[in-house]
Amino acid sequence: MGGAIHDKKEQMNYLHNRLNLVMDVLDTMDPEEAGVEEIDRLLSMLDDIETKCKQFRHDWSE
Question: What InterPro entries is this protein classified in (predicted)?
Fold first, then answer.
């Protein structure tokens, strides 16, 4: 995988891309066929984004 991202612009691009990925997953989900697994996957993706936001927040406060 990639290394640490310390540049603020790169951090924002990373978050933007991850959020776009979440939106793409939502757009392709069929609400009639989606199950708990799909919801759990979305929650996992959002948790990963939250973790990165916290890491980036720490970087920005330095």
Answer: YfjT-like (IPR047670)
Alpha helix ranges (H) inside the chain: 8-28, 36-61
Pull the structure tokens for residue 55.
């890491």
Q: What's the CA gap between 47 and 40, in Å, rounded?
A: 10
Per residue in 27-39, pLDDT (tens digit) is: 999 999 999 999 9
Distance from C-alpha of 56 to C-alpha of 6, rounded to nearest angstrom = 8
Q: Kindly report the pTM of this predicted structure.
A: 0.82
The rounded distance, in Å, linking the Cα atoms of 59 and 6 is 7
Could you tell me what percent of the chain has a pLDDT over 70?
95
